[in-house]
Task: structure prediction
Amino acid sequence: MIRLSFFFGIFLVMAVWELLAPRRLLLIPKLLRWSNNLALVVLNSLVLRLLFPTAAIGVAVFANKHEWGMSYIVDFPFMLEVIFVVIIMDAIIYFQHVMMHAVPVFWRLHRVHHADPDFDVTTGSRFHPLEIIISMLIKFAVIIFLGAPVISVIIFEVLLNASAMFNHSNVRLNKSMDQFLRLIIVTPDMHRVHHSIEADEANSNFGFSLPWWDRLFGTYRSQPRAGHEGMRIGIHEYNRPEQVTYLHKILWLPFIGKITDYALNRRYK
Ligand SMILES: [Zn+2]
Ligand SMILES: [Zn+2]
Result:
């Protein structure tokens, strides 16, 4: 319920903001793209509900009931523990995202996210169901390993959901506001660089909520070479709208074609 109401609330805010102050012109008619991207969101929710009915929160409750995980070994004040766990989980998401780009078979799944020819609030939830399942399993393992407090998991889930919608949205922020926000959260301009069709730009700015990991691990890139209005969004091999817009094509995308230079260890010069 908490997740769902946050999802709809923030979705609505970002959707209206996109109408009032758009950053780029969209290429594909919104109705067509949104109906397919949102159909994927509904499908993913159904798959998750079916496979993991209690989701991450249920795993946290279970781990705590059995006193599993690091939080039962080291003794931190509870508030500190809650904050630490949220930050650590965000760092793990960063590494998971890097892995999605680095390992060819994972890149096949993750290119569903990158093949979106436009970049807006619906791109933030456009993931292949198999990638969603893998992320969920990684999250479960992390929650159990850490013995994550339930409240940390709730905060993390809401934060990740909200920031994914915010940082994918097609909104215009003035430069100083963008620079200020980048100190604490990934902004749309920062994450848009990651959706560039250029491989070196796509392999930067992996962060989802906190912007610090990219700076710390050397994957930060401040702006796209062609500028935000001039840059091309998507991936080289699949950039015709009819290849990447419709739900059935999106679901089939991981299983076609060869792996190209986006996967880090497939870079041929
Ligand atoms: Zn990515
Ligand atoms: Zn993205």
Observations:
- The radius of gyration is 18 Å.
- The longest helix spans residues 78-102.
